[in-house]
Write a structure and sequence with these properties.
TIM Barrel; UCP005295; 8 strands; Metal_Hydrolase; metal ion binding; eight-stranded parallel β-sheet; 270 residues; globular; alpha/beta
Length: 270
């Protein structure tokens, strides 16, 4: 089955991972800007990173007939530095017209601090002024539920931000309902040790249905599995779900969401 991984950090993966995903049916990946494993010291470091995301990674993916798309921001882990964040946000418009750039993300909260909220709101303002899609990071563990509610409240306070053009990622059982009830798209990240497992993601689909739900691997520096989406496909098949329902979550939904961006150029194969 063809599928799309809507959130994977390929700057932290080897080229072999592109080949493996292509062999398993992946036809496109979407890479949000994120933490480099350390806090960067200048806006120029982000300029180099944006070049990597928008120029180099698409060429690596193309070697295996994969389409690579990207998102731009300063991530929540580095957003405590408001001065640096504002310098980075000022750079982003230079890159928004590049092929394959889908919007602003992954923005959000890490420890739910005032500075993180300030930078989140300034990202939202940029997205609203430039009419961009938004991809959102929700916090981990004990910070997730209060952070998700903070994020939803900030989103709804800005009437310019359309829920249909916003993807709230890393949802789990205790946050997915509020995200969906407010009309946003929801992403389930399949990690080996935290966030969702393929089994838990299948449970969520069975409980809430496939509308506005996606699954992704995130595939970053830490314990993660770039082939987690196929694991979800196999779990859904094991439970006897129709191929059309599985395809809705792993292929049709990403196409529908990303298709709202004029720079999302994609031709299904076959």
């Amino acid at each position: 089955m063809d599928y799309i991984d809507p959130h994977i950090h390929f700057v932290s993966r080897t080229t072999d991972d592109y080949e493996t995903l292509a062999k398993m049916g992946c036809v496109a990946v979407s890479e949000p800007a994120f933490w480099a494993g350390y806090d960067r010291g200048s806006a120029e470091g982000f300029r180099d990173y944006f070049e990597q995301l928008t120029s180099f990674e698409p060429s690596r993916a193309a070697q295996y007939s994969l389409r690579h798309y990207s998102w731009l921001c300063i991530n929540a882990k580095e957003a405590e530095n408001v001065e640096l964040s504002r310098e980075v946000i000022a750079l982003i418009p230079e890159y928004l017209d590049r092929p394959g750039v889908l919007g602003i993300g992954e923005i959000g909260l890490n420890k739910n601090t005032r500075n993180e909220a300030t930078v989140f709101l300034e990202h939202l303002d940029l997205a609203a002024r430039t009419d961009e899609l938004v991809l959102i990071h929700t916090p981990h563990l004990a910070d997730k539920l209060p952070g998700t509610r903070m994020i939803l409240d900030m989103l709804t306070s800005d009437a310019r931000i359309k829920p249909s053009r916003t993807l709230v990622d890393h949802v789990e059982e205790h946050t997915v309902r509020e995200v969906l009830e407010r009309g946003y798209w929801a992403g389930m990240t399949l990690y080996p040790t935290t966030k969702c497992t393929p089994e838990r993601a299948a449970d969520i689909v069975e409980r809430y249905g496939p509308e506005r739900l996606m699954v992704n691997s995130a595939g970053d520096w830490g314990p993660s599995k770039p082939t987690a989406v196929p694991d979800f496909i196999f779990e859904m098949r094991r439970r006897g779900h129709d191929e059309s329902l599985i395809r809705r979550v792993v292929y049709d939904n990403p196409l529908e969401f990303f298709g709202q961006c004029a720079r999302f150029e994609f031709s299904p194969r076959g």
